[in-house]
Amino acid sequence: MISRCFPFAGAWRALSRCPHRYLKTVSRVKAKSVGIRDVAKLAGVSTASVSRALNVPATVRPEMRARIDAAARELGYIPDAAARALSSRKTRTIGAVIPTVDNAMFARGIEALQRHLSLKGYLLLLATSGYEPEVEFQQAQNMVSRGIDGLILRGDVHTEGLRTLLATQRIPFVNVGVYHPDKPYGCVGADNELAAWRACRHLIGLGHRHIGMVAALSHNNDRATARVRGVRRALAEAGMTLEDRWTVEVPYHLDDARQAARALLVQPERPTALVCGNDVIAYGVLLEAERRGLVVPRDISVMGFDDLEWSRHLRPSLTTMHLPTDEVWTRAGEYLVNTLTGMPAVLHYEVEASLVVRESTGPAPFSRDEGTGRPAASRQNP
Question: Residue 207 and which of 34, 75, 172, 215 are 20 to 30 A apart at CA?
């Protein structure tokens, strides 16, 4: 029974019959484990060169680094992380605290970050905060206690306790998703207010004068707040306002977005265009508009934000603001790695949010009453 079900049945029988001999065999195997000297000998270099190639690859010539990497692979050598940490006082571990993993944009960004860090020989430690600064602080404390070398945070809404912790422990950090060139610490992201301003200007240029917004929850979310601010600014410059009756904040979920859209679309006077806090919210608006028999963009235009993969495959495809998510997170990792290795690092890195015009936005609908010039939003819904 053991030999069929237990993959180490042979070892188990050997241990049962002669435990002393088996343990001696294991000890001999451990004694022959591959070390840095073996790698150096096979590669024909010094142990110091191997150490530099493993810990600071940029300081070793590419040709020598390739020989050392090949020797390490051939021998199956794995560096002892604990020993490296003791000798260098670095664990080659980067922490990242994000609001949630239930978001396609975060998932894609973390994948890009991990890919970059792996190429540089760093491990990623991930935690979530649920958009709560106190939870973010606690997660960061846990990571610091485990010896992270650097930290990536989402946005710039942090507790003073977290800022003090990072300063006293001298841990470099970078905020992603925001661009604040006036701050003394690192950031990688777009100007969210400017991006939302551009999105709203697109709708105004199509003749829309009744514009609403289904925004993300602004509590502890400076990106969402900045996007609402951008929409308000664009409307104000055009002599309009973002009316409270056409403004709703929702979590990043389809169901919540549909409920918000339903509340807006059943109003006697509804908006002719909606700016959404992100693409997922826009999906919910599109679904609810279709359910109510509205044709997008003939009856209502919908604008997204982020440009997720599904956005171009929908029918109608979604007009949205494209954010280079992979670049944002890769640049964040690059900033920390360069800072930790003494290489030049860009403190404030701005990425461009670009308008992608597709099928979900069009000219503002007008009343069938010839010559009235009144937008369809002013008519009673059927």
Answer: 215
